[in-house]
Amino acid sequence: MDRAVVVVAAGSGTRLGIGTAKAFVPVAGQLMLARALEPLFSSSSPTLVVVVAPSALLEDCRRVVATAAGAAVAYTAVVPGGTDRHGSVQAGLAVLPDSVTAVLVHDAARCLTPAAQFDRVFDAVASGAGAGYVPALPVTDTIKRVAGDVVVETVDRSALVGVQTPQGFPLDALRRAYAASTQSETDDAGVFQAAGGTVRSVPGDADAFKITTRWDLGRAESIVRSRASVPGVPAASAVRLGLGVDVHAFDAASPCRVGLLDFPGEPGLSGHSDGDAVAHAVCDALLSAGGLGDIGGTFGTADPAYAGAAGDVFVRGAVTMLLDAGLAPVSVTVQVVGNRPRIGARRVEMQDALSAVVGAPVAVSGTTTDGLGFTGRGEGLAAIATALVRPA
């Protein structure tokens, strides 16, 4: 694992004035922390997520993190924060394994930050030859320098930007910078720069603003409501549900591939492609949710281009078609029906593999039919999948 995000969620929220830690304040019905975590688990690259929480709310935080992460909960950790932000960031950095090369530090109060902003910063750190990176927006207001209430001069705003999070750095360099810090710097970039590091900027996003006051909270709720609505479509129907079912007979002459995993020593599944019934059911569920047809009509069961093709080819194709239609996966659930192969010991591995391709959480379960039907007789395998998609 070579990348991580430290989410700072230990703030008291005094200026918000609601009487609870800021990260645990609801934003349009969902906790601020939960909203901040959502984009982190949509990445196609596995990422460690460390949440720094108030000491009194560690168990509450673990529940929120587990719900947000779903099948990826093994990639998370929750640690108590320090007496200030400086100490909280250090607490998060301290638990990261040395295999991590790039780390992003993010404020949970910027809970509407889009996933693309995390990707931009990660990509910049990966190609930045040791530099730190911050997302920034140009200053659009006229800026005045004052003395008391007297305006002294107009400041040239062309060289000014407003800085956001996540801020990204090489892990070793950021650890050294924090160890040498006097705690007078205002953010992670300031700590990094004070230690001699170079900091560069990447484009920010207007939605990545920090919720500090009740006005900010109302603004965030308004943005959430507008995201949930589609012109001409009631908000309640903006999320779409799809169903996919696939069945394949066993073929002892074929390798066994189920849910994007290989099962050596097990009989394979017959089919024009690799016969991965789980991947095919997921593909059909995604296409169904988007109103985009089915796997047979879309990819062609006799098309030589797909002869022996792996299941991820079809799932990726379905996700691409959804994005082209302005839709994105929210979650997928799939149940494997059959006596073999036994998936219980590899369920989490299968969920991770499928989630990485779908770009959203995938939950896998398995069942048998108590000896009834073709699955009970060991003649084949079935998979049933449901998918939720939303406007992208």
> Distance between termini?
28 Å
Give the helix level as a range of percent.
Answer: 25-40%
Main-sheet strand order equals 5-4-1-6-11
Approximate strand percentage: 25-35%
Query: How many E strands?
Result: 19
* Number of DSSP helical runs: 12
| Overall spatial form | elongated
Largest sheet: 5 strands, mixed
Query: What is the averaged pLDDT score?
Result: 90
Radius of gyration: 24 Å
Quickly give the structural class.
alpha/beta
Uncertain segments are none
Care to describe what's here?
By secondary structure, this protein is an alpha/beta fold. It contains 12 helices and 19 strands. The chain has helices spanning 32-37, 58-69, 85-94, 115-126, 171-179, 188-194, 214-228, 277-289, 295-299, 311-324, 347-358, 373-376; strands spanning 3-8, 26-27, 30-31, 48-53, 76-80, 102-107, 132-138, 143-147, 150-155, 161-163, 167-170, 199-203, 240-251, 257-258, 261-262, 268-269, 327-337, 362-367, 380-391. The strands form 6 sheets. The protein has a 5-stranded mixed sheet, sandwiched between helices. A 5-stranded mixed sheet has the order 16-13-19-17-18. Helix 5 packs across helix 6 (188-194) and helix 8 (277-289) packs parallel to helix 10. The mean pLDDT is 90.
